[in-house]
Amino acid sequence: MAEIVAMKRSMEEGPVHASLSGGILTLTLANPPANALSIATMEALQGALDQARDDDAVRVVVLAAAGKVFCAGHDLKELTAHRADADRGRAFYEKTMRLCAGVMQSIVRLPKPVIAEVAGTATAAGCQLVASCDLAVATTEAMFATPGVNIGLFCSTPMVALSRNVSRKHAMEMLLTGEMIDATTAREFGLVNRVVPPEYLNQIVRKYAETIVSKSPLTLKIGKEAFYAQAEMGLSDAYDYAVKVMVENMMARDAEEGIKAFVEKRRPEWTGE
User: Fold this and answer.
1) Residue 85 carries which DSSP code?
2) Crossing angle for the helix pair 217-231 and 90-109, nearest 10 degrees?
3) Which among 21, 135, 184, 230 has the fewest CB atoms less than 10 Å away?
4) Which DSSP state fits 259?
């Protein structure tokens, strides 16, 4: 808890604001109007995720944004400024893309569920950010796109997260056309879980988060890791792996307590062991 309190103080004026309540850590992109993923923003986001990883007070992470744009992707002005470098920006672009890839992988590998709360437009790396989260809830006004192709820059890194969340045809439609899709289409594609009126967004996200907080933290950690690991395996290997995970999960104290509580018709008391 002390780590998060300290983090909150240090991030109140930065590009990412942190707030912890009831086990739910809300990380808000706070650099409107674009909430672009500049180096400073990505470093702040990475730092917050790193601290949340080992803090037992954090059970669920919510990614939100201030303003009408969730995230417009990389800071194009920042990228363009480095064209004047001796290497025409190569080193800076390498740093930017690798930092972004690290943030996205940290979200997937975080042993706690991450929910995207999308109240506005999410494009390019911003769309990648949404796709990288475990769950995503969007308002009816939200829009999504991977528009790099429109400026001569194929969204190759956003493609990694996008193609792991929607069908290949839908991913290619977004990547090849660069056109915006509305929230309803994003839900049909599988990019978001729910589409809700703007006034209910925070309430619905909070309900998701509180439901997840009520579960065993150990079980969530085991399950999230296993979900992404088996998704990259062939069918036979996935089942072999899942059997081992299931057996180890059964040996956990929380599984013993959960089953016993179910039989006894009472609420389980989780210990995280």
Assistant:
1) S
2) 120
3) 21
4) H
Please give the Cα distance from 266 to 76 (Å, whole number): 55
- Cα–Cα separations (whole angstroms), residue 199 to 27, 100, 161, 187: 19, 31, 28, 19
pLDDT digits (tens, 9 = 90+) for 1-50: 444 444 444 456 699 999 999 999 999 999 999 999 999 999 999 999 99
* Residue 248: other Cβ atoms inside 10 A: 12
DSSP string, 108-162: HH-SS-EEEEE-SEEETHHHHHHHHSSEEEEETT-EEE-GGGGGT---HHHHHHH
> Tens digit of pLDDT for each residue in 190-209?
999 999 999 999 999 999 99
The model's pTM: 0.93
- Which domains does the chain possess? 2-213 (3.90.226.10), 217-263 (1.10.12.10)
